[in-house]
Amino acid sequence: MLPVEQWAEIRRLHRVEKLSQRAIARRLGIARDTVAAALKREEPPRYRRAPGGSKLDPYKPRIAELLGRYPELSGVRVYEIVRAEGYGGKLSILRQYLATQRARPAAYQRTEYAPGEIGQVDWLELPERVPDPFGEPRRTYALLLVLGYSRYLTAGFSFGLALPDLLRCLAEGLAFFGGVPRRLVFDNPKTVVLRHRGREIVWNPAFVAFADRYGFRPHVCTPGPVGAHEKGLVERPVGYFKGNFCAGRDFRSLEDLAEQFAAWRDTVANVRLHSTLRQRPVDRFAVDQAALLRLPAAPYDPVEVRPARVSRQGLVRVETSDYSVPAVLAGHLVEGHLGVTSVRIVAGGRIVAEHQRSLGRYRLVEDPAHRARPWATGRSSRPDQPLGSLPAAAQVPVEVPDLSRYAALAEA
């Protein structure tokens, strides 16, 4: 089966670097038929879990103990010890594993980046909690993005660390930059990689599909302290962000947080004299931006869609909470469109209800107008009724529903 990372690299080389199929096959050392198959396939291939585990797995705690007591113990000596205790694998496998476990010298050379070459990405948790739409304080996270050449930065904010949160914040950040670096460096969250052991990297297929759409080549750091220097571009701004932006500020909501950050980013962070470059990021950004890849024609849609059926009580369960809709829709199939802080219920392509999104569990979120007459279930609420014939008042085609129409109908 075609590995998902090879599928993504073939498509990137063809679309971004404009290489022919022959040139791609030569560069990657694979058959042209494999290249052609990858270019025809729009969705990333799915991984198949390898049967069983490594013969070395049961001996990893013992190896950690040996290295803790004797850091300079040679690979051959470790092999002799664990082989005497029952290890039946090869010395080469053991040496590969030891290479990922031994500490390395912490002396690194400063790296210079070409314009448009690289960006680095990392999550951080804000020191203080931020109220959700219901006023409950929540853990809040920032996805920090920094461009390598200019050190120009931005961030997106979320109450969670799930894949939709990552992709939404990443899409917003790339839209702010007005383009895409050729390579993006990440840590090792499960939303990006399912497994990373030594040189073996199993990518999250849904993330690879996002990378394919935007055209960047993903890179993940070496696990553990060894890989910390690989994302130094974003590690240093994390401390700067917490100390200069977060400290001494209060945030009333996620929207208030984003507004205060945008002002700080544009008037402080990106116009400061960078201590390493001795230039302002904003002054280097024009060169960086000109070298970025173009944004995709169809960018990532940050709205997460969940199908659901309206209960007899006129409620729609999205995640673990119930949201009210006009009871005339009882029994109908609808969609819950999850935004960052809102939930819209859509039926037949029309918005029929809009609520603040509950981040708590098992909450009942109601609009009192949905319980007022004439929203009694009856003949008009049959699940087989065409949605186009629903009462106009059960449809909300505007951004903010005008609830006065329900009162007018009640008086009729």
Major sheet characteristics: 5 strands, mixed
In whole angstroms, the N-to-C terminal distance is 65 Å
On the 0 to 100 scale, the average pLDDT is 83
CATH architecture of the largest domain: 2-Layer Sandwich
The number of distinct β-strands equals 16
- Give the helix tally: 12
Question: Spans with pLDDT under 50 lasting ≥5 residues?
Answer: 105-109, 374-381, 395-401, 405-410
Radius of gyration, taken over Cα atoms and rounded to an integer in Å: 27 Å
- Work out the strand percent: 15-25%
- Oligomeric assembly: single chain
Task: Quickly count the domains.
Answer: 3
What is the H/E order? Answer: HHHHHHEEEEEHEEEHEHHHEEEEEEEH
Which structural class best describes the helix and strand composition? alpha+beta
Shape: globular
Helical amount: 25-40%
Spatially, the strands of the biggest sheet line up as 5-4-1-6-9
Q: Classify the fold: give the CATH topology of the largest domain.
A: Nucleotidyltransferase, domain 5
CATH H-level name of the largest domain... which superfamily?
Answer: Ribonuclease H-like superfamily/Ribonuclease H
Supply the CATH class of the largest domain.
Alpha Beta
